[in-house]
Amino acid sequence: MSVRINPSILSADFVNFEAEFASISHADLIHIDVMDNHFVPNLTFGLPMVSRMQEITPKPLDVHLMISNVDKWASGYAETGAYSVTFHAEASENPVDLARKLRAIGARAGLALKPGTGLEPYLDVLAEFDQILIMTVEPGFGGQALIEETLAKVKQARRHIDAEALEVWLQVDGGIDESNIERVSEQGADTFVAGSAVFKASDRNLQIDTLRNLATAAHHH
Ligand code: DX5
Ligand code: ZN
């Protein structure tokens, strides 16, 4: 199974996205954090900017919506042509309906869970999604330390995906760096978001390669 490294542009220069995208050409996908200052206490950008990013990006976009009323707003992001749209279970009235809508538009559908949200209620509907995102920090800000307790949920998700032979990517987001990515990979994650760990590096592509090599060597699936 292949491992993916998705740099998060939350740690990039927000007035130089074209150059910032070019500086991470070894990325598998580019992770785009949309925040509304309501679902999370931070604000980034919305649909017009993601739409423009989609026009200039050399890589598929992995859009992570940290917004309320997602049943209303998520489809617009899929309509930009974004490769993947992930929304929070806590922000949706009907995650399955929304996943079907996103897929019908042509995007991969992702379901995100905050650290305090249990996986059990969603196990039976995982097949409706292309990706599950287990948040390894409280969503809202880059540069936080990984919450160790979230790794049990990663392992639980991996067990279920394998047992049911689902084609679901298992993504982790928050506090991932070269010191812990092997451990997180051992728990079964295959898709790694890294913001500060990539953008603070003097050679970002070298850092992406290093993270991918560490994760691949530790992956047993
Ligand atoms: C946090 C965002 C992350 C963030 C990760 O709410 O969803 O994507 O950019 O940043 P790091 O890797 O610095 O923890
Ligand atoms: Zn994110």
Labels describing this entry:
221 residues, alpha/beta, 9 helices, binds zinc ion, binds D-xylitol-5-phosphate, single chain
Note down, in words, how this protein is organized.
- The model has no long low-confidence stretch (mean pLDDT 98).
- By secondary structure, this protein is α/β, with parallel strands linked by helices.
- The radius of gyration is 16 Å and the shape is globular.
- It contains nine helices and eight strands.
- The chain has an eight-stranded parallel sheet with strand order 1-8-7-6-5-4-3-2.
- Helix 3 runs parallel beside helix 4.
- It has one domain: Alpha-Beta Barrel (TIM Barrel), CATH 3.20.20.70.
- Strand 7, helix 7 and strand 8 form a beta-alpha-beta unit.
- Zinc ion binds next to strand 2.
- The site of zinc ion has 6 residues, from strand 2.
CATH topology tier name: TIM Barrel
Oligomer kind: single chain
Any guess at the CATH architecture?
A: Alpha-Beta Barrel
Low-pLDDT runs:
none
Mean pLDDT: 98
Q: Give me the number of helical elements.
A: 9
| SS strand fraction | 15-25%
Number of domains: 1
User: What is the string of helix and strand elements?
Assistant: EHEHEHEHEHEHEHEHH
Q: Tell the overall outline.
A: globular
Strand count, sense and barrel status of the largest sheet are:
8 strands, parallel
The residue fraction in helices comes out at 25-40%
What's the CATH class label? Alpha Beta
Biggest sheet, spatial arrangement of strands: 1-8-7-6-5-4-3-2
Bound molecules: D-xylitol-5-phosphate, zinc ion
- Amino- and carboxy-terminal Cα gap: 6 Å
Instruction: Output the radius of gyration.
Output: 16 Å
